[in-house]
TrEMBL record:
Alphabetized SUPFAM superfamilies for the sequence: NAD(P)-binding Rossmann-fold domains
Domain Ketoreductase, first and last residues per copy: 11-190
A Pfam family this chain is assigned to: adh_short_C2
Entry-linked InterPro entries: KR_dom, NAD(P)-bd_dom_sf, SDR_fam
Keyword Oxidoreductase included in the entry's annotation: yes
Similarity remark: Belongs to the short-chain dehydrogenases/reductases (SDR) family.
Protein name per the record: Dehydrogenase with different specificity
Database matches in CDD domains: SDR_c
Leader sequence residues: none
SMART domains found in the cross-reference section: PKS_KR
Domain of life: Bacteria
Molecular function in Gene Ontology: oxidoreductase activity
Amino acid sequence: MYANFPDLKDSSVFITGGGSGIGASLTDGFLAQGAKVAFVQRSDATAFCDEMEEKHGTRPVFLPCDITDMSALKASMDEAVKANGSITVLVNNAANDKRHTTEEVDEDFWDWSQAINLKAYFFACQHVVGGMRAAGGGSIVNFTSISYMMGNAGYPAYTTANSGINGLTRSLAREFGPDRIRVNAVAPGWVLTQKQKDIWVTPEGLAAHIDRQCLKEELAPEDMVDPVLFLASKASKAMTGQSLVVDGGVVVTG
């Protein structure tokens, strides 16, 4: 069960990557608030939408989209507005943490990684601002990661983008604050989505990571929902330009 934020009822929410992993939990969480949710994803999410409709009595709007195509991303956001009204909550969640070494990165991989992990964030924010301004305000939540705070090796293009998301968040918070548009970030720790379990998790690696956590429990996708709902709602109306770390206590800020 998630915390209840009454002001999110009937709000128009747009989530990138909202049909799997953390994004699916976010879609579930916003629907539970009575929000109208639209999301983009490359893979087919029809079965997930069926599940959400059966659970909540409301079907999310699924818009197939490759977010590395900025024109397609903007067109999907326009379709979401037609379906649900002006977007007042944007969650930039989609990312790809494909492992790589510095020496094997070529320009095509670099551009692909930045397009998914940073470029799409910028242009989604840019595209939503006009509607939020006209609506009298809104909330943008950008997903980053503690990976760059830890100085992790193994995916330097990804950690570069994560660090850039924090810079983007702070600058846009300053630029759009006068329009009552708040921009914050969430920095998860190692969240055990099915993709992480299938590709990256090993018993030794997971045990070592949990040993670094203050809270000795695995992090699940649903653990990210309440923090995002909080940042989307008026409960956090005095917060902007911040990065909220949700990692079980691996890194410390301040």
